[in-house]
Structure prediction request, 592 residues.
Amino acid sequence: MCGIFGYIGPKTNAAKMVIEGLKSLEYRGYDSWGIALKTDNDIIVYKKTGKVGEINKLPKNLLGKTELAIGHTRWATHGGVTNANAHPHFTENKEIVLIHNGIFENYFEVKKQLLRKGHKFTSETDTEVIAHLIQENLKRHDFEQSVKNAIKKIEGRYAIVIIHKNENKIIAARRGSPLIVGVGKNGEYYIASDVPAFLKYTKKVMYLDNDQMVILSENSAKFYEIKTHKEIHKKMIEIGWDSQTAEKGAYAHFMLKEIMEQKETLYRAINQDDRLIKKVADAINNACGTYFVGCGTAGKVCLTAEYLFSEIAHKHVNSIFGSEFPTHHHFITNKTLLIPISQSGETADTLEAIEVAKEVGAKIISIVNVETSTMARMSDLIIPVKCGPEKAVASTKVTTAQMAILILLAYASIEKLSEGKILLLETAEKINDMLNPGYVMHIFKLAEKLKNFESMYIIGRGANYPMALESAIKLQEVSYIHAEGFAAGELKHGPIALIQKNTPCIVLVGENGSKSAILSNAMEVRARGGYIIGVSPTHEEVFDYWIRVPEVSIASPIVNIIPIQILAYQLAILRKNNPDMPRNLAKSVTVK
Ligand code: G6P
Prediction:
């Protein structure tokens, strides 16, 4: 949610670099953007609604020589999508400039106090209030102290980056929203919400943790605890990702690239240290209650855990959306095991669930793709998903890899890890075969038939019920078609009233046990005029359109969701939507 990128160092094309870096952060928000660059004794700010501008179309003065620049790509929270609300925000006297990610929860109170002191605001944002708060402090204190004093007044989660027209430094601080310092050559530093922004230049990073600030100048990065102002020594970490995997390559969109990467991501996800998987399985067996917690697609993966553990290990585990966790915290004790599932490791609602659970001493083992994320650092142990960067807003490759890890854990909890591994290796091989150009074209043809429908339904049973919900999210996110997922057996209790002539209904057929029941449900829909799209290893009479998936028994949710990802992608293309940047959404939701 909102992307931040800044640079200080000897390179004189800082502004160009920041604009390019912002493009790789657009998945975090793309309703408006802006940049501030420092000249000798001044700051130039340029901001605009829409996606980050093309360098060759920008005003010339933006691309003059500068060694210090910061930029922002926004996902609006406070204030509409306007040029004025875009970041960076100046103070009234144009002395400092600030960019921000997060929500300043008590901003209104502070704004009222500042208004009484005569401050005039030009935007509706909470961010501008922070800039004014710093300006008020600058009357009595130096730059660093003013920032510190202002930050102490902020309630909520934030990442902020500030520059002063007379100082050759970047000050940044965080609580809750990510900020990572990239360490370049020759005393240069980058600061960003996520590593792809500077991966082209360096893989060496230092993480800012909660309630810490950093002061970056040429040749030095000094980290402090905000409360005590004690200096902290940070460890330098080398990132395993390379810049190529963070780029689109030959694909038109990241979403398609990431869908196709599922030919190999499953292999990587299941290539785990057996001791780690057994250790986590033991923790599940010994816990007094295991809770899987996540949001959005990761939340649906959590729900599959309930079914997979029940089917494979005959064990009860709980799943809950991060945002709903506050009502469950009464059951959490120091014997509970919390398993957060997340791609980014930065989702605010999931992080908050971890904080609540940690307070009572619960154990935290996360299944997370970004191994250096806040979530990973808050956990007692992590299982890395190993998918490499996932940049399209709609999650695809990480979803299936996370489910593969759940299957490994469920088998390991009954001491049958190798059985689970064999099943998943076979599944990975079959996905490799499945994702061929002919297969993709067959689904593209279906998209052509469905592109003008305004509603569709998806049904599943058992572990395919969460995948029916996930299918609906995929279709909503990128095609903007109204889509709803149901437990197939529930259809007759209400939703079947929505079926009319030709209403598309996707049927996710699971393993043999539930097959005849869901085919009966499909028949009920067809009898009322529904157009049945069967996702199934075998062709069935009830299907009007058949999408073949491999037979993989309990791993069927993994293979069943892939054709729906392809369908959603192609519907987005046919309906002229950008699948990588769907309206109103952001990849990493760092606000509550
Ligand atoms: C956002 C994204 C979803 C994602 C969810 C959770 O809503 O648009 O694709 O599933 O956040 O993200 P996480 O990084 O925690 O998996």
